[in-house]
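The authors assume throughout that readers already know how a fold can be written as discrete tokens. The format is easy to grasp once an entry is in front of the reader. For illustration, here is how one protein appears when written out as sequence plus structure tokens:
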Amino acid sequence: MARDFDARRNADVEEDELQEQSLENLKAQRAGAAADLGDDMDALEAELDLPDADVRDEELSLRVLPRQADEFTCTSCFLVQHRSQLADPRRVVCSDCAA
């Protein structure tokens, strides 16, 4: 929005009120757009019949073990592999990434 710096200062009050009103309008539009997007996503999910939609709200619990003494982390794919998969000990690369 262009601003006239030579204009009187009391016009700034009106301009601030206009900006506040337009900000409120933008917030209302954004909220309406977000609500519309949510409705579209629900319709899309119903149309596609997603296979994992019923377990979406479940909490997954998985026990994570630290890297063992006979394992290494590949510097290329960053997967933890068993020492038998080590193709290049100097570069610490697994056999899949070395190929």
